[in-house]
């Protein structure tokens, strides 16, 4: 089940994702569970595996900033400004979801959170898998995020089609900052690696 990060592995992962599979991979922070954002069945599998609350949306990693255009509607000027300033990096931006994204992903909120990771290996994987992947943490809900491929396997001895070994997470990492840009007024949902002060400096407004 656990395989190394190689060109062959990436091709196999892409085939699994296109066929509605679920993979685990190291993101730019911890290990995450990846599925195609349009596969309601695969996203449902992830929710069942994790025991995740159906009212909580699942964020997406994207391979390139241009992938935003396929996932949200009415991208605001604020979105453009903040993305140019902090992507790739630990910032999740929430926008109004394209109608093709399933409720299993958005939890019926009509919005979706996107992040362009600051890790080339992760971006390559996401690109090969179609430009966007779910990246909810690879752990049971309420448990600590998995820091290694072995910890993923311990959490999920069955139910995952492929675990890509991207190495152990050894350094403490701050969570991504989450900024909601789906409404007229920007709103910080969670302050993490990028401070509220930094965002205010770019946007020119108090948050």
What's the topology here?
Elements: E1 2-4, H1 7-18, E2 23-26, E3 31-34, H2 40-50, E4 60-62, H3 77-86, E5 91-96, H4 103-106, E6 111-115, H5 120-128, E7 132-134, E8 136-137, H6 149-155, E9 162-165, E10 177-180, E11 187-190, H7 196-203
Parallel strand pairs: 1-9, 2-9, 4-6, 5-10
Antiparallel strand pairs: 2-3, 3-8, 4-7, 5-6, 10-11
Judged by helices, strands and strand pairing, the structural class is: alpha/beta
- Major sheet description: 6 strands, mixed
How much of the sequence lies in strands comes to 15-25%
The value of Rg in angstroms is 16 Å
Overall geometric form:
globular
Instruction: Say what oligomer this is.
Output: single chain
How far is the first residue's CA from the last residue's CA? Answer: 45 Å
Number of helices: 7
Which blocks of ≥5 consecutive residues have pLDDT under 50?
none
Strands side by side in the biggest sheet: 7-4-6-5-10-11
Helical content stands at: 25-40%
Total E-strand runs: 11
Mean of pLDDT: 95
């Amino acid at each position: 089940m656990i395989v190394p990060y190689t060109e062959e592995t990436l091709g196999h992962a892409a085939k699994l994702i296109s066929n509605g599979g679920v993979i685990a991979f190291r993101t730019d922070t911890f290990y995450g569970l990846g599925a195609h954002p349009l596969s309601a069945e695969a996203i449902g599998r992830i929710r069942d595996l994790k025991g995740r609350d159906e009212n909580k949306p699942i964020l997406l990693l994207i391979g390139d900033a241009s992938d935003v255009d396929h996932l949200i509607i009415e991208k605001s000027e604020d979105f453009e400004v903040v993305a140019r300033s902090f992507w790739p990096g630990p910032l999740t931006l929430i926008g109004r979801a394209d109608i093709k994204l399933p409720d299993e992903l958005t939890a019926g909120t009509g919005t979706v959170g996107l992040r362009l990771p600051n890790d080339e290996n992760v971006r390559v994987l996401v690109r090969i898998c179609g430009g966007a992947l779910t990246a909810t943490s690879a752990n049971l809900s309420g448990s600590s995020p998995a820091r290694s491929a072995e910890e993923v396997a311990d959490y999920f001895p069955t139910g995952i089609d492929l675990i890509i070994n991207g190495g152990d997470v050894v350094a403490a990492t701050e969570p991504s900052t989450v900024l909601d840009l789906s409404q007229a007024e920007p709103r910080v949902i969670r302050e993490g690696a990028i401070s509220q002060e930094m965002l205010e400096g770019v946007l020119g407004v108090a948050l």
